[in-house]
Amino acid sequence: MKIIDGGVTAAEGFQAAGLAAGIKKGNTKDMALVYSEKPCVAAGTFTTNVVKAAPVKWDQHIVYEAPTAQAIVCNSGVANACTGEEGYGYCKETAKIAAEVLQIPEDSVLVASTGVIGKQLPMDLLGAGVKNLVPLLSHTREAGKLAAQSIMTTDTVSKEVAVTMEIGGKTVTLGGMCKGSGMIHPNMCTMLGFLTTDVAISKELLQKALSTVVKDTYNMVSVDGDTSTNDTVLLLANGAAGNAEITEEKEDYQTFLDALLYVNTCLAKKIAGDGEGATALFEVKVVGAESKEQAVTLSKSIITSNLTKAAIFGHDANWGRILCAMGYSGAQFDPEKVDLYFESKAGKLQIIKDGVATDYSEEEATKILSEKEVTAIADVKMGEATATAWGCDLTYDYVKINADYRS
Question: Which regions span the lipid bilayer (predicted)?
Answer without folding.
Answer: none
